[in-house]
C-alpha cells in the first residue's frame, strides 16, 4: 500500500495524468459536439487511428511536424465527412457506418503502413516528426505546480484550450444554439427554417476534426511513431466520458480527466508486482463503474421528475 | 365585396398510399377576420392546414395570396409570405429559455457570439407590442401549457406573421387558459391580424369566429357567416351521413354479459378526469357502438378494455366473462377470448416489414397446432395463412409478401382476419374501416355481423356514423369522458340528433349510471 502511495503522490504521476488524458479529451469533445446535435459518432476510435497514421506519413514526407498535424486533422474531418455523407444523404444507420469505419481503420491502417514501410507492426522505418513540448516561463519555476503543469506536449495545451473553445461554441454562438436545438427537438428547429441535416453535417465534421487531433497526439506526442491499433480503445472511452459527463462541456472534461487518471494509474502500477494484464483492465473497469454510477443517478433523476408533477 | 387575403381553390390532396384527404376544397380568408375550419377527425382539416403552411404540396388546385398565385413548398416559404402557425404539439426546445426559442434560426449576433441580451430585448419588445406577457428568461420546460402556447404565438409574430393558423389550440388548455387565449386572439384581430382557427368544438368556434368553413369527408361543405348559422346547422353539416348503408340483421335475443364496465373513473397524472363514471355491459351476440368526437375519452376507454390503462384509475371495474381485467396483462386478456382491432393499423395493428403470414399468426404463434416441438410448424402456418388470405380476399402476391406493401384496405383486412379468426368472445373494434375503400369496408362490416351471429360480443368505436348507426344494437355517445346518451335502436336515430349529443349541445337526463347492473 505504501509503495502504491509512493507512486501516486508524486508530481510525475500528476504530470502523466494530463499526458494520457489528452487523446481522450480531444475525442470526448468531438463526441460531445456530435451528440449535442443528436447524432452519435461511434467511429471515433477508427478516426483517431487513421489520423494517427496520416500524421506520421505526412510529417515523414514533408519533414514538418506541423504539416503532419494538419494532415491528421484533415484526415479525421474527411473520414467523419464520409460517415456524414452516408448517414445523412443515404440514410445508412449511423451505428453501422461507425462500426464500418472502425473495422476499416483497424485493417486499412496496417495495410497502408505495410505498403509504405514494409512493416506490419510499426512505422519505425519512416522518419516521422514529433510536435514539440513547451516549457511555460514563470509557471515552470513554481514548486509542485511547475513540474505538473509545465513541459507538456503542445497538443496537451491545445486540448485544454479546446475545452474552452467547445464551451464557447456550444453555449455562446448561434451555431451552438442550433446544434443544441437540433439535438433536442429537430422538429422545432426545422419549423423555424434551421436545416437539421446541415447542422448535423457540421457537427459530425467537427467531431472528426477533434478525433483527428487526438489521433495526431497518439503518434506525434504520446509516442513518436505509429503502431498497429495504437488507439487501444481510447475512442470508446471518450464516448463513455462524454456520456458520463452528461453531455456538458465541463462534465466531459472532468470525466475525461478521471479516465486519464485511471489510465495513468495503470501505467504507474506496472512498476509494482501486480500482473500487467490485470492493471491494463483498470481504465476499462473505471469505464464500467462510471457508466453504472451515471445510469443509477439518471434513473433516480427521472423518477424524481415523474413524481414531481403529482407533488405540485 | 372584400377581396380575399388568402384563397385556396380546388385543393385536392391524394397521399401516396391512395388516401384522398382533400377533394376540391375551397377556402377563402378575408383580411382581419377570425375564420374557423371545423370538421370531424379525418375530415381533412389538418391536411388543408399543412398545405396552407407549406408542409404538404397539394396534388391539384391553386393557392392565392392577395390575388397572386403562389407556391408554398416549405414552411419557410409560408413564413416569408407572412403566414405563421401554432402547432398542436409545440415546436419548442424544452431546455432553452423563452428568448432562445424565440430567435432560433434568426439569432441576433455580436461578433461571432450569439447576442442573448438582444434576444431578450426582442422577446420583451414583441411581448409588449402584442400585449402577451411572457418571462423571456424562463426555461420553456418550466412553463405551463398556456404559456408555451403564448411563446408559439409570439414566435410566429416575431417572424412577421400576418396570418396565424392555430391547430386545435384549445385542446390542451384549461378553461381559464382558453378564455385568456380568446382574449388575446381578439386583440390580435383588432391589430389587423387574420386568424385561422381549426377546431371541432362548436361552442368555441361560435364564441370567437366571424366565419366558418366546414369540412366533411375531405370536401368543403360551404362557408358561412357565424351569425347566419345555428349550432344545430353546423353540427348537421359536420356529421351528416354521405352514403346510407343498409344491412339486414335479425334482432338476436340477448345472451349473457361478456363485458361489463362498472363505474369506471380514470384521471390523468394531474388529476383531470379522463373517464367519469362509465358503466355499460355488452352481451353475447350484441354490438355496442360508441360514438363521439375524437378526444372525448374513447381512446382511454379502449385502453382500459385492452390492458393498457392510460392515466390513473381512481375507481371502478372492468370484467370479461366475470374476470377482472384492469390489472391483467395483455396475454391474459387475450387468453379470455378478447380480440382487438386497433385504430392505427400501421403502428399498432401490424409489423410492416413482416410477412402477411407472420402478422396473421402474431397473436397465436404459441398455440399447439402451429408448433412442432421447439420450432414453429411452417407448413401449418402457410396453410392457415393461405386459407385466411383466401377467405378475406386479401389482394396480395401471396402470404409471404410483407404486409407493409399492401394498400390500406388490404392491410386492414389482414388485421381483421387475424382478430376475427380466433373465435373471439369479445371483439374491441376501433375505427375498423377508417381510410378503407367502400368495398373493403362492407366486407369488414359483413365479418363483424358474422361474428355477432356466432355470439361474439363487440364494442365498436367509430367516427363513421354510417357504420356505427347501422351495425350497432345499442349506441352510446361519449362527450368529455362521460356517456351522455344511450340509444336502444340506433338505426332509427337521425344524425342531426346524434350530432347534438356528440358536440355536447344536448345530453340525456336520467341515464342510469349503473347500466352494468341493469343488464347483468
Q: Which characteristics define this entry?
A:
heterodimer, A: about 300 residues, mainly alpha, ABC transporter involved in vitamin B12 uptake, BtuC, two-stranded antiparallel ribbon, 14 helices, about 0% strand, B: about 525 residues, alpha/beta, Rossmann fold, 4 domains, six-stranded mixed sheet, about 30% helix, about 25% strand, globular, disordered C terminus
Task: Please provide a written account of the structure.
Chain A has helices at residues 2-8, 11-36, 44-62, 65-89, 94-117, 145-149, 154-172, 174-184, 186-191, 196-222, 234-244, 249-269, 276-280, 282-311, and strands at residues 133-134, 152-153. Chain A is mostly helical and 312 residues long. Chain A has a single domain (2-311), classed as ABC transporter involved in vitamin B12 uptake, BtuC. A two-stranded antiparallel sheet of chain A has the order 1-2. In chain A, helix 3 runs antiparallel to helix 4 and helix 3 (44-62) runs parallel beside helix 5 (94-117). The model of chain A has no long low-confidence stretch (mean pLDDT 89). Chain B is an alpha/beta fold. Chain B folds into 4 domains: 1-82 and 162-243, P-loop containing nucleotide triphosphate hydrolases (Rossmann fold); 92-160, no CATH class; 255-337 and 423-520, Rossmann fold; 345-422, no CATH class. In chain B, strand 7 and strand 8 form a beta hairpin. Chain B starts with a strand and ends with a helix. Classes of the chains: A mainly alpha (312), B alpha/beta (520). The interface between A and B is medium-sized, with 20 and 27 residues.
